[in-house]
Design brief:
146 residues; alpha+beta; 7 strands; globular
Length: 146
């Protein structure tokens, strides 16, 4: 498995993975637009020319938000999500960012466990943030020195 910067040839597979993993998924057009944004940085995890996971982010000045992260259900629990997050943080440090923030469903214990393992802490809660199904989002944040 290899972590790569997302390119145009990955977009269709990322869009399919979005549909598989999320009820309220991003469109292929929305994902394509991220490639053109100077604020965005997306990575894909590729195995045998197949995208098995991805992480997307947007930065403003010296802070970054995770827009989305997903790993194909058949590839979960193999360290792919951790590799994507660590690879993203490595690049963000090079770009001068000092913090990464994300939202996660309050019921998503496996994801919360991973984020806590990686040093994220809860800094807030967004009531009814998710719509399908309706659920609160925990706001998690990790900071580092550059």
């Amino acid at each position: 498995m290899t972590i790569l910067e997302m390119k145009a040839e990955h977009v269709a597979q990322v869009a399919e993975l979005e549909k598989l993993c999320f009820a309220d998924h991003w469109s292929q057009m929305s994902i394509e637009s991220e490639l053109r944004s100077i604020w965005s940085y997306w990575l894909v995890a590729v195995q045998d020319d197949q995208v098995v996971g991805y992480i997307g982010s947007q930065s403003t000045v010296d802070e970054t938000d995770v827009m989305n992260i997903a790993v194909h259900p058949q590839w979960r629990r193999r360290g792919i999500g951790e590799s994507l997050i660590n690879s993203l943080i490595g690049e963000l440090k090079n770009r001068g960012s000092h913090a990464l923030t994300l939202e996660v469903r309050a019921s998503n214990a496996p994801a919360i466990g991973l984020y806590e393992k990686l040093g994220f802490t809860q800094v807030g809660c967004r009531k009814n943030y998710y719509r399908n199904p309706k659920e609160d989002a925990l706001i998690l944040r990790k900071e580092w020195e550059n």
